[in-house]
Amino acid sequence: MNTENRQLIALNAHLLTAADSYRSAGIAVYVMNLLRHLADVNDGLEYRVLLGDPGLAAEDFNLPVLFSRVPTTRPTVRVIWEQSILPWVLRQLDAALLHAPAFVGPLLSPCPQVITVHDLSFLRHPKFFRRGNRLYLQTFTGIACRRAAAVIAVSNFTAGEVRTLLRVPAERVHIIYHGVDPRFRPLPLQEVATFRRAMQLPERFVLYLGTLEPRKNLPQLVRAFARLRDPDLHLVLAGGRGWLYEEVYAEVERLGLGARVHFPGFVAAEAQALWYNAAAAFVYISHYEGFGLPVVEALACGVPTLAAARTSLPEAAGDGALLVTPDDETAVVEGLHRLLTDAALRDALRQRGLAHAARFSWEETARQTAALYRHILSPGREG
C-alpha cells in the first residue's frame, strides 16, 4: 500500500463535537485550530482527520476526513474505540504516524505516536475530577506518553510536569504553545455597546469565561467579588457546566448575590470576543492550568486581566496581567479593586497585554507541530 515517499499522518479528532457544551471548549479549541492550520503548512505530508460526531461537516476542515460509524460522542465509547478500533484503522490507512491530541493514544498502536498533554491536574488535584475520568487519565496517560515518539506540552510549566510526574525523558518533550485566533482583538465601541444592549448586560461587570468546574477556583472569585461592596458592579461567570460545579451556585446563594452574579451558560466561539470586549475586567484565578488560553484571548482583546500567579498562568499572562495568589482571598479582592479603579494600571496592562498576546498564533502552533512530525519521520532518526 505504501509508496516510498508517502507519509500519512492520522489525527485523532474524535474529541470534537458539534454540540454547544463545555466539550466544545478547552482541548477541542486546540484540536480544531490545529486541524484548520495544518492544511496551510506546506510540509509535503499527507493527513487524515479521524472524526466521530456525524454532526460535524467535512467541509469544516481543509484536510481529508474519515468518519467512524461508532458513536464516539459518548466518552466511554470513545475510549473503547481508541484502544480497540483505532489500531485497526491505522493499519488500514497504513499510517506512518498518529497524533493523539488529548493525553492518550492506543496502547497497541501499529505506528509511532505524538501525544499532546494539556495539563496534569488529574494527578496534582484528583479531587477536582469525577472518578471515572480521573482513573482513565491516571491509568493511561503515563503509559501512552512514555511509549510515544514525542510528547507535546502546551507550556514550559506543563513540560516540567510531564518530565517529573510521567517520567518522560526531556529529549522527547517538546513545548508548543497554543495560538490565538485573530478574531480576539479590540472591537469598535459601538459594536460592543450594541452587543451589551442585545444581551441586556450591565454597564460594568467582571468576566470569567471558561468551563464551570472545581479547578477554576470560582467560589473564591465569588467571595472576593462580594467583598468589593460595589452595588453597580456585576460578575458574569460564562461557560458551560462541566462537573462538580454545584458549589459555585451554592456560594452565590449563600452570599445573596443572585441579582448581581450571572450565568449565561456556554458561549459560542463567534461571540467570545464580544464578551471579552464588553467586560470591565477579566479574571482567571485557577488553582491549576496547563496553559490558560482564555487569559491570552482576553489580553488580545485589550481587557484588563487578573490571573493566578501559579502553574502556567504567568507564562500565558506575561507582563500583560496583574497576578495574585489564588488561595489568598484578600489578595484577590485587592487585585480586583486595583484593576477596576487604577486607570494608569489599566492602560499599562492593556498596552503590554496586546503586545504579549501578539506572540501567539495558531499558524505558528501548526508550523511547529508539522516540523515535529517531519522530525519523527526523518530517515535515519533513532528512537
Please give a structural write-up:
44% of the residues are buried. α7 (218-228) runs parallel beside α8 (246-254) and α10 crosses α13 (343-357). The chain contains 14 helices and 13 strands. The radius of gyration is 21 Å and the shape is globular. The strands form 2 sheets. A 7-stranded parallel β-sheet has the order 3-2-1-4-5-6-7, with helices on both faces. The chain has helices at 27-38, 75-93, 121-124, 131-147, 156-165, 189-198, 218-228, 246-254, 269-278, 293-300, 313-317, 329-341, 343-357, 362-377, and strands at residues 8-12, 46-51, 65-67, 97-100, 113-117, 150-153, 173-175, 205-209, 234-238, 261-265, 281-284, 305-308, 322-324. The protein starts with 7 loop residues before the first strand and ends in a 6-residue tail after the last helix. It has 2 domains: 8-179 and 362-377, 3-Layer(aba) Sandwich (Rossmann fold); 189-357, Glycogen Phosphorylase B (Rossmann fold), CATH 3.40.50. The mean pLDDT is 91. With 383 residues, the protein is an alpha/beta fold.
The CATH class label of the largest domain is Alpha Beta
Low-confidence stretches: none
Tell me the number of structural domains.
Answer: 2
What is the total tally of β strands?
13
Q: What is the ordering of alpha helices and beta strands?
A: EHEEHEEHHEHEHEHEHEHEHEHEHHH
CATH homologous superfamily title of the largest domain: Glycogen Phosphorylase B
Main sheet specs: 7 strands, parallel
Q: What class do helices, strands and sheet pairing give?
A: alpha/beta
Task: State the CATH architecture of the largest domain.
Answer: 3-Layer(aba) Sandwich
Strand order of the largest sheet: 3-2-1-4-5-6-7
User: What is the fold named in CATH at topology level of the largest domain?
Assistant: Rossmann fold
Shape: globular
Strand content: 5-15%
**Distance N to C terminus:** 25 Å
Radius of gyration: 21 Å
